[in-house]
Amino acid sequence: MTSKLLGDPFDPWRELAQAEAGLATGTHGACASFVGTMRDFNLGDNVISMSLEHYPEMTQQFLDGICDEATQRWNLVNCLIIHRYGKIRPGDPIVLTAAWSAHRAEAFDA
Questions:
Q1: CA–CA separation, 85 vs 54, rounded Å?
Q2: 92: which residues sit within 8 A by CB, 6+ positions away?
Q3: CA 41 to CA 93: how far, in whole Å?
Q4: What is the mean pLDDT of residues 88-96?
Q5: 3-class secondary structure, 105
Q6: Over 90: is that where the pLDDT of 1 sits?
Q7: pLDDT at position 83
Q8: DSSP readout, 1-22?
Q9: Residue 92 DSSP symbol
């Protein structure tokens, strides 16, 4: 189970592929994922960038807690959370979540 905070842009599809490559073959039948990206508008205004600040230890602990709770509630093979901080531009991925399980219902529920 992995959670990461990143200050630089990331490729969510490469991150998913790397995480899945680390799983034993045949251990999962499903992966449900979500990628959140920055919009170029908010409440009718144009947005050219934003900056996300965080307290590193507290934020990492919170993300780890989400992974821990998901693995306790559902029978997951793996879970992944990546969240950006720092300067973000429209189109940049901000968050990636993924859950791998034997069956799709558990992956989607997680």
A1: 7
A2: 9, 37, 38, 84
A3: 15
A4: 98
A5: helix
A6: no
A7: 98
A8: -EEEEESS---HHHHHHHHHHT
A9: -
Residue with tokens 């499903």: 30
Q: Read off the pLDDT of each residue in 12-32 and give the average, rounded to a whole number.
A: 96
Concatenated DSSP letters for 39-90? -SEETTEE---EEE---HHHHHHHHHHHHHHHHHHS-EEEEEEEEE-EEE-T
Token digits for 57?
């230890």
Give pLDDT tens digits for 39-86: 999 999 999 999 999 999 999 999 999 999 999 999 999 999 999 999
The one-letter amino acid at 83: H
CA–CA distance, 36 with 50 (Å, rounded to integer): 14
pLDDT band for 14, please (50, 70, 90 cuts).
very high
CA distances from 75 to 25, 70, 83, 106 (A): 17, 8, 23, 7
**Are the C-beta atoms of 95 and 81 separated by less than 8 Å?**
yes
